[in-house]
Write a structure and sequence with these properties.
Elements (H helix, E strand, L loop, with lengths): L2 H13 L6 H18 L10 H12 L12 E5 L7 H7 L4 E6 L2 H14 L4 E5 L2 H4 L3 E3 L7 E4 L8 E3 L4 E7 L4 H8 L3 E12 L5 H5 L1 H7 L1 E9 L8 E8 L13 H4 L3
Parallel strand pairs: 1-2, 1-7, 2-3, 7-8
Antiparallel strand pairs: 3-5, 4-6, 8-10, 9-10
The structure holds S-adenosylmethionine (SAM).
Length: about 260
């Protein structure tokens, strides 16, 4: 990334009160370079102008830090694609234990390159569908539906259940809120939060439509916060969905059903 873009990014981050260190700026810069390089080979993003990437990907991804702390917490980013919002959250919160989940293998290969190049530790990348990864026990290294690209040595060749394991789940631009709740809530510990990144919806229609799903899954919308990134109108909303009790074992339903027949 060019120096003038880095300077704009640094100033805009400072203005939001979320300042970043020189090392973190270097990591964002390298992430940008890899994103653009890989985007010419595989489809990762339509947004490639440096300032736009800084605002619409990097700053958007870390927006929940204005409202909650991710320090020392575990987080799964569902349908992470090119790593949004998971990787920017990890760069700005080095103590975060991060799992990146995506259904597309090529994107997971890109994520592996990014985490290795940026020297990010405590990151697990899972190629698979949310419905499979949350449905119970999963055999790391040897599962047809879910393959683990990057796991810690002590987790290798063991059965690991991703269910009920995370303090946070995040998802941006993946599905409607009622579908997302069925993907995300089973991954959470009781007391954990699903942070859904959405376009501003003045009537909260998606939230209303997700009411039944949240009730079935044992969750409730704790708060929602409108926000913006520099250069853009106030056009985004974060929904913070709290898991209040255990999700019944039958959820998520088998692959494809949450999407075809939303709760
Ligand atoms: N979250 C990223 C962002 O905001 O830029 C990527 C959004 S992209 C439009 C949606 C991603 O979700 C794709 O990479 C797709 O493979 C993934 N995806 C969709 N349904 C999924 C599922 N059920 N489980 C895992 N990944 C899924």
């Amino acid at each position: 990334m060019e120096n003038d873009t880095i300077e704009i990014f640094r100033k805009e981050m400072d203005a939001t009160g979320l300042s970043v260190s020189a090392k973190q700026i270097d990591q964002f810069s390298l992430y940008y370079d890899l994103l653009v390089e890989w985007n010419s080979k595989i489809n990762l993003t339509r947004i490639t102008e440096p300032v736009d990437v800084c605002r619409l990907h990097f700053m958007d991804s870390i927006a929940p830090m204005r409202f909650v702390s991710f320090e020392e917490r575990s987080l799964i980013d569902i349908g992470t694609g090119a790593g949004f919002p998971g990787i920017p959250l990890k760069i700005t919160n080095p103590s975060l234990k991060l799992t990146l989940l995506d259904a597309l293998d090529k994107r997971c290969r890109f994520l592996k390159e990014v985490t290795d190049s940026l020297g990010l530790d405590n990151v697990t990348i899972i190629h698979g569908r949310a419905e499979d990864a949350a449905s119970g026990k999963l055999k790391l290294c040897d599962n047809k539906a879910v393959s683990i690209i990057n796991i810690s040595e002590d987790e290798k060749d063991t059965d690991v259940s991703l269910r009920g394991r995370y303090d946070f789940a995040t998802s941006r631009a993946v599905a409607k809120l009622n579908i997302l709740c069925e993907y995300a809530v089973p991954f959470l510990k009781t007391g954990g939060r699903f942070v859904a990144y959405k376009s501003l919806d003045e009537n909260n229609t998606e939230l209303g439509d997700a009411g039944k799903a949240m009730q079935i899954l044992g969750a409730v919308c704790e708060r929602h916060e409108d926000y913006s990134v520099p250069g853009h109108a106030n056009d985004r909303t974060l929904y913070f969905i709290l898991k209040e009790k255990e999700t019944p074992e039958k959820y998520p339903r088998r692959t494809g059903l949450p999407d075809k027949k939303p709760l």
